[in-house]
Amino acid sequence: MRAALPAAALAALLTALPAAAAETAPGLAQLIDGVLAAPADPKARALLREAAVAAAERQKAAALLEKKALLAGAERDRKLLLELRAVREARMRAWERDFATVCSFAGQADTAGEAVAAYERLLNETPVYSDNREQVKAAGEKIKSVFYETIKREFPYLVQGRTQTNERDIAALMFTRASVRDDNVRYLDTSVTQRILDIAARLRRVEGELGRQHVNLTEGLELYAKKRYAEALDLFAKVLSFDSENEEALFYRARAEEETGAGVLNEEKR
What we know:
Layout: H1 7-16, H2 19-24, H3 28-37, H4 42-106, H5 112-124, H6 133-154, H7 156-159, H8 167-179, H9 190-225, H10 229-242, H11 247-260, H12 262-269
């Protein structure tokens, strides 16, 4: 049978062992149980029992600290999410007011110029959230239908019997009275023609970008849920390149950076 360690030697060994190591060393519990089962030295038995109790207390204290940290983090996130939700709702209310203004302008030929300019601004300032994709899509369809009714009523030659309008029709509406002379839509000033084409191209580009950023945010959130933080960060960055104030992307980017340590590295670089 293996001889038990003398009490003095055992005390020196346990004193030299760091507290963290005593808690996590593999097989420590089994070693304690084995020595306690048949020790030759009563002092060693008592010392090992005290060490086991101390280790258990340290583990319990560490678990409580971890629990408190998790609860504090959860409460912090809850409060932050509530704040971000309030900001998000305020942004969407402002956007909806701008949307109503665009529809009002688009319904009148006299405010065609204001309508087209306001529509372009609205597209560029549209917030991209995980739950407003259909709302934005429906709003775009409604605005185009209002533009279409105005063009069909006031300048039917622009739509030429079509049942819906496109970005070029909308852009042309801004310059119609000054540049259009007949039903074939011949523009006398080529610079005006180019401006119409430029506006139409910008409208199409931003409409397409909105769709891409909605996809990026949705996929970024899915990757975040799967703990694929580095990939999620790339997509959140793309969303923020379009909508720099996006609270949803900012929140999850910060959390992903915490998980990967990127946030600490960025702070150190500053």
